[in-house]
Specification:
The structure holds two protein chains of two kinds. Chain A is built from ten helices and 13 strands. Chain A is α/β, with parallel strands linked by helices. In chain A, strands 6-7-8-3-9-10-12-11-13 form a nine-stranded mixed sheet, sandwiched between helices. Chain A has a four-stranded antiparallel sheet with strand order 2-1-4-5, covered by helices on one side. Chain B is built from twelve helices and no strands. Classes of the chains: A alpha/beta, B mainly alpha.
């Protein structure tokens, strides 16, 4: 059997702890700093939301947990990824695939249309995930039964077990993908914008189902999204990412109800159209994310920030503690800060 | 009791896949035609010594030469008085062997080169592909002639020359097929649920990359048979007195106008064989792709 024990000591502590993670994509021409010193913690059974624009580094961070970064260019240059206390970065590729991927930590991707193998029926695809892990050495029949149970869990009739992906609609495909991910009952699920490719009504259904499963199975979830509504609905804790860094992190109450926010967060909330008011134009945040191959000195948000002042250009802000759970990376709060979190 | 039923259920499922494949193949009319033709040619090749006379293939009968089809000689006799029917039937063995062997060799070598190219990339990929480019620019006939001139006329050399001529297309096809599939989202998803590289290559990448390769293989066989025939027609390759269809056409060329029957039967068999492989290949490809269902 394995020499590793991935169970949480004393059933205490975090399921996932990312500490000072730095990830780059290195090509011959340039180096892209995708993730810059990111730290976050996911509590067992809870949902952690990761919000940000396209290009913020959310997907890169998720991929590094399961060692899915592109072989030749993606590199983790610093930091630790602790799963129940064990640093995943120290494990070999083989151990990752054998014992972590799919068994303790699962991931679901953004586009359900292309995430399933087109020439295998869905029952077989779920079966494969079970077959590769089978820690209790179940028999074939027991595994087949488990496939059927998992399908029922996500609301698909087990009579459809032998059908092919193209015979399912987008929302159902995503359910199949969730079934594959949860087949081995992992402790942590990383969901990278799972409903972005689906229309709003299906999105609501799939999210409701994920909520239910989270309650039933107690799986902790990292939910990557750009939709603040989804965060409000589904998450217990959340972080806002910008240009590879976390600029604000806290519980969902901190994020939605606190008075103090990073100017980027303010911009994000401001850009959501209001149902009650009539407006002619949407309120975007002016400008674009800085070039990740040439990040500005000082605060990464300086060029787009309405509150930018001298210090922002000269000094890179640290994460400042606003409350026990709420942290903001902005010089505006340096007086208010209870403590400075050096990273 | 319940366990036995469940076991049967799983066994049925696997048999079901073959049944399913056959059911879909059956629906395709041209594929069925191709299959019938192919079975016919196979039958001729396998039971040649039952339905025809092996002796008659080489027996010269000067007194009955250049005779049209008759009760004794169903396809007539050639310029040496040999029974054309027996020669054509036994010729099927030669054509099938050459076609299948050279296609298999081409597929095997080309496939490996293509896979290696796709997997390792970099300078190895460049070198292999440039060599393929060079090989591709030499016409098959010329390549075969050169090889035979250098190494001597024999069936083996013919098979090698044919395999070499088609090598680049297999290499390029395998390479591009694999490159496309390897980047797919479902391959990434498979890594995410813990599938190992072996599983990924054989169960996710290869089966999805198979379609074009299958069609290419069967087209190759038919191509090779045609090329072999043309090479024998030119006098290169299968040597007399072997009853290779192309060689038979060569012999009959002079007498085409006076005794057309001499080229009709070998010609028709060449067509049937090449056509059958093409149709069967298409049928296979269509039947294997679940997306083309119904």
């Amino acid at each position: 059997m394995s020499e590793y024990n991935f169970d949480r000591p004393d059933n205490d502590g975090y399921v996932l702890e990312i500490k000072d993670l730095e990830v780059i994509y290195e090509t011959d021409l340039e180096t892209v700093h995708a993730v810059n010193s990111v730290s976050l913690s996911v509590r067992p059974g809870k949902t952690f939301g990761l919000v940000g624009e396209t290009g913020a580094g959310k997907t890169t961070m998720a991929l590094s947990v399961l060692r899915l970064l592109p072989d030749r260019t993606g590199k983790v240059t610093n930091g630790e990824i602790l799963f129940n206390g064990q640093n995943l970065l120290e494990l070999s590729d083989e151990v990752m695939r054998k014992e972590i991927n799919g068994e303790r930590i699962s991931m679901i991707f953004q586009d359900p249309m292309t995430s399933l193998n087109p020439i295998m029926n869905i029952g077989d695809q779920i079966y494969e995930a079970l077959k590769y892990h089978n820690p209790e050495n179940k028999t074939k029949e027991e595994l087949e039964k488990r496939v059927e149970d998992t399908l029922e869990l996500v609301g698909i009739s087990k009579n459809r077990k032998n059908e092919y992906p193209h015979q399912f609609s987008g929302g159902m495909k995503q359910r199949v993908i969730i079934a594959i991910a949860l087949a081995c009952e992992p402790e942590l699920l990383i969901a990278d914008e799972p409903t972005t490719a689906l229309d709003v009504t299906i999105q609501a259904q799939v999210l409701a189902m994920m909520s239910e499963l989270n309650e039933k199975l107690g799986t902790a979830t990292v939910l990557i999204t750009h939709d603040l509504g989804v965060v409000a609905n589904m998450c217990d804790d959340a972080a806002v990412m910008y240009a590879g860094e976390i600029v604000e992190i806290g519980t969902v109450e901190d994020l939605f109800e606190s008075e103090d926010h990073h100017p980027y967060t303010v911009g994000l909330f401001g850009s959501i159209p209001n149902l009650d008011e009539e407006t002619d134009r949407l309120q975007p945040i002016e400008g674009l994310m800085p070039d990740p191959t040439a990040l500005p000195y000082g605060c990464h948000f300086q060029e787009r920030c309405p509150k930018c002042f001298d210090r922002c250009i000269k000094e890179h802000p640290q994460l400042l503690k606003i409350s026990d759970t709420h942290f903001i990376r902005c010089h505006l709060f340096s007086d208010k800060a209870l403590e400075v979190n050096h990273d | 009791m319940a366990v036995a039923d469940k076991n049967k259920g799983i066994a049925l499922k696997r048999k079901g896949k073959v049944k399913e494949f056959w059911r879909r193949y059956k629906k395709n009319k041209s594929a069925m035609v191709g299959l019938v033709l192919l079975l016919f040619i196979l039958f001729c090749a396998i039971f040649a010594n039952v339905i025809a006379d092996e002796e008659a293939v080489t027996r010269h009968n000067p007194e009955v030469r250049r005779q049209g089809p008759s009760a004794e000689h169903w396809f007539g006799t050639d310029i040496y008085g040999r029974d054309i029917y027996s020669r054509v039937i036994f010729g099927s063995r030669i054509s099938l062997t050459i076609g299948v062997l050279s296609a298999a060799l081409s597929l095997f070598l080309g496939g490996i080169l293509g896979a290696v190219s796709a997997y390792f990339g970099g300078w190895l990929d460049d070198i292999i592909m440039r060599i393929m480019d060079m090989l591709m620019s030499i016409p098959a006939t010329l390549l075969a002639l050169t090889l035979v001139a250098a190494l001597g006329s024999s069936t083996t050399n013919l098979v090698i020359a044919l395999a070499l001529s088609n090598l680049p297309s297999f290499a390029r096809l395998t390479r591009s097929s694999m490159l496309t599939v390897v980047d797919s989202d479902y391959v990434e998803a498979a890594k995410a649920y813990g599938a190992r590289n072996g599983h990924i290559i054989f169960k996710e990448v290869l089966p999805n990359a198979m379609g074009p390769i299958i069609v290419q293989t069967t087209q190759s066989v038919s191509n090779m048979i045609l090329t072999a025939s043309s090479l024998s027609f030119l006098g290169v390759g299968v040597q007399a007195p072997a009853p290779e269809w192309g060689a038979m056409l060569a012999e009959a060329r002079e007498f085409m106008r006076q005794f057309p029957y001499m080229i009709i039967s070998p010609g028709i068999f060449i067509i049937i064989t090449a056509l059958s492989f093409n149709l069967v290949g298409d049928g296979f490809r269509d039947a294997l792709d679940p997306r083309l269902k119904d």
